[in-house]
Fold Rod shape-determining protein MreD.
Amino acid sequence: MRNFLILFSVGVISRVIAHLPNFTPVGAIIVYSASRMGIKKALALGALTMLVSDAILGFSYVSIFVYLGFASYAVISKLFSKKIGLMLSAILGSCAFFLISNFGVFLGPWYDHSLSGLLTCYTLAIPFFSNMLIADIVFIGAISIIENVVSYKFKKINWEVLWLQLFPKAILRKR
């Protein structure tokens, strides 16, 4: 429960303080929590984080698509993190979030509801996607390092364990 509350607090604070657009640890937190706490807790953590921070920041018609995008992080992590690692799960989560949340934006009043409008919407969202992708990579790495340091009680960091959390042997080429 303590880890849940810590991750929840970090997620909410990161969303309400000033930050680059889409540069928060929320996606990485959901990927991590799905692999360590299970999909139900990860979905609850993501939803609660978003609901509380959106209560402060404001809701919009796109919120449901944003929530579904974050839910995709949990599903991807639960299905794939043991096979492809936390890092690639976070990257796939970023991609799924980009597709889902921006489809919600496309359905709004800003774009012509045609293939051209959809492509324009996705094209204009690329800078936001790059911020989210970089944030997910940075924060899943940071969370893994913190977990490794804490689990070894501030003794020597086991870099091999850390590396295998991020990139399991199944995807690493043996020499």
Notes: The CA atoms of residues 59 and 76 lie 25 Å apart. Helices lie at 2-16, 26-37, 39-57, 63-106, 115-124, 126-151, 159-166.
